[in-house]
């Protein structure tokens, strides 16, 4: 093991965790959140929904399978969810300096250093997670010796504007034209659409996509407070009036809810894992889902034309909505998964069915 430097994690309540540095050695600040997934750190680190956050992995050993190659397919990275790391810092219990995987290109440590993202290991992540569960997600900072910084609340920024594409891009040449409203879209949303005979028109968060020639709309995931996306919400309201099929994921679920007249609120510590059970309303069908969000729709504020589609079995929070008569629906969880599970990918087929029925 190479020689490592001391580094610490400081929470806004004054709690300090001493650890060792294994990434880029610098101080950073952000919102500290935890993820209980056992695998998938390359996908999580490149998920734009983590913009501005210091990610705590509760799984005890991280780094043992390295980081995949940065190959591209259909104009997007093949094994990553975006073109860069979005977390501000990574906090883990134990780092594996040795890695082995058929698709590994380099180590997690090398990857963090290349992207100038700090990593800290040797932390009791169980104790840290208990604090976050009890008190809720809180501000924190990773500090190196001699480089003290202030706390920063990323939710006060328009994080969506930071992670969205800057100009329109077109992918594929399928028969169904789908507008992907990029508020921080994961690449696997694109992959799932492209393999269903679509032409995907990816547009910035503030782009008036209602002027496009399209068959359906995909509202993507993304970071931060949905109330920051006022322009996007206005465009969604226009799209609702037009009436063509709409499918929203994660932040897209919240934006569709707000556009329909509902309100959202911040969860105590959010949902970030691969194993959240949700039940489809009106059925006994349960799905295991991948999730990454800190805000949710208030079911009690849905108008008479809308109803909950899925509910989280653990805490009864909203996991999706649908219009009672029109082809609009959304999920708070990630049916595109990456890195799993894929139990609900069939919902992309539901979008295509709605498009075909609307033509």
TrEMBL record:
Active-site residues, Swiss-Prot/TrEMBL: 250, 334, 336
Gene Ontology biological-process entries: 'de novo' pyrimidine nucleobase biosynthetic process; 'de novo' UMP biosynthetic process; glutamine metabolic process; L-arginine biosynthetic process
One example GO MF annotation: carbamoyl-phosphate synthase (glutamine-hydrolyzing) activity
Pathway assignment: Pyrimidine metabolism; UMP biosynthesis via de novo pathway; (S)-dihydroorotate from bicarbonate: step 1/3; Amino-acid biosynthesis; L-arginine biosynthesis; carbamoyl phosphate from bicarbonate: step 1/1
Keywords assigned by UniProt, alphabetized: Amino-acid biosynthesis, Arginine biosynthesis, ATP-binding, Glutamine amidotransferase, Ligase, Nucleotide-binding, Pyrimidine biosynthesis
Segments for region (CPSase): 1-176
Residues annotated as domain Carbamoyl-phosphate synthase small subunit N-terminal: 5-143
Reaction it catalyzes: hydrogencarbonate + L-glutamine + 2 ATP + H2O = carbamoyl phosphate + L-glutamate + 2 ADP + phosphate + 2 H(+); L-glutamine + H2O = L-glutamate + NH4(+)
Binding-site residues for L-glutamine, renumbered to this chain: 49, 222, 224, 251, 254, 292, 294-295
InterPro entries linked: Anth_synth/Amidotransfase, CarbamoylP_synth_ssu, CarbamoylP_synth_ssu_N, CarbP_synth_ssu_N_sf, Class_I_gatase-like, CPSase_GATase1, GATASE
EC number(s) per entry: 6.3.5.5
HAMAP family given in the database record: CPSase_S_chain
Role, per record: Small subunit of the glutamine-dependent carbamoyl phosphate synthetase (CPSase). CPSase catalyzes the formation of carbamoyl phosphate from the ammonia moiety of glutamine, carbonate, and phosphate donated by ATP, constituting the first step of 2 biosynthetic pathways, one leading to arginine and/or urea and the other to pyrimidine nucleotides. The small subunit (glutamine amidotransferase) binds and cleaves glutamine to supply the large subunit with the substrate ammonia.
Subunit structure of this chain's protein: Composed of two chains; the small (or glutamine) chain promotes the hydrolysis of glutamine to ammonia, which is used by the large (or ammonia) chain to synthesize carbamoyl phosphate. Tetramer of heterodimers (alpha,beta)4.
Family affiliation: Belongs to the CarA family.
Protein name: Carbamoyl phosphate synthase small chain
Species this protein is from: Carboxylicivirga sediminis
Gene: carA
């Amino acid at each position: 093991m190479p020689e490592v430097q001391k580094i610490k994690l400081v929470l806004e309540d004054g709690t300090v965790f001493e650890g060792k540095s294994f990434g880029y050695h610098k101080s950073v600040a952000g919102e500290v959140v935890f993820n209980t997934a056992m695998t998938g750190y390359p996908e999580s680190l490149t998920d734009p929904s983590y913009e501005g956050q210091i990610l705590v992995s509760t799984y005890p050993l991280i780094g043992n399978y390295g980081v995949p190659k940065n190959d591209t397919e259909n104009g997007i990275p093949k094994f990553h969810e975006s073109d860069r790391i979005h977390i501000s810092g990574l906090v883990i219990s134990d780092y594996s300096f040795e890695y082995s995987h058929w698709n590994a290109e380099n180590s997690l440590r090398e990857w963090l250093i290349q992207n100038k993202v700090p990593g800290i290991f040797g932390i009791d992540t169980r104790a840290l997670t208990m604090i976050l569960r009890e008190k809720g997600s809180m501000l924190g900072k990773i500090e190196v010796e001699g480089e003290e910084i202030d706390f920063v609340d990323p939710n006060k920024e328009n994080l969506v504007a930071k992670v969205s594409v800057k100009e329109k891009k077109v992918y594929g040449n399928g028969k169904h034209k789908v507008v992907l409203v990029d508020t921080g879209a994961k690449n696997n949303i694109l992959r799932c659409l492209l393999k269903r005979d679509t032409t995907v028109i990816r547009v910035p968060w503030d782009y008036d996509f209602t002027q496009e020639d399209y068959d359906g709309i995909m509202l993507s995931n993304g970071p931060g407070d949905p109330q920051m996306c006022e322009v996007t919400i206005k465009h969604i309201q226009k799209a609702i009036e037009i009436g063509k099929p709409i499918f929203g994921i994660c932040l897209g679920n919240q934006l569709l809810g707000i556009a329909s007249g509902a309100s959202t609120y911040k969860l105590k510590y959010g949902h970030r894992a691969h194993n959240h059970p949700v039940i489809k309303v009106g059925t006994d069908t349960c799905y295991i889902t991948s999730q990454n969000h800190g805000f949710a729709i208030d079911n009690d504020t849905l108008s008479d034309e809308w109803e909950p589609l899925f509910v989280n079995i653990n805490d009864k929070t909203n996991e999706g909505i649908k219009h009672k008569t029109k082809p609009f629906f959304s999920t708070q969880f990630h049916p595109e998964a990456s890195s799993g599970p894929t139990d609900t990918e069939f919902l992309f087929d539901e979008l295509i069915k709605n498009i075909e029925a609307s033509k």
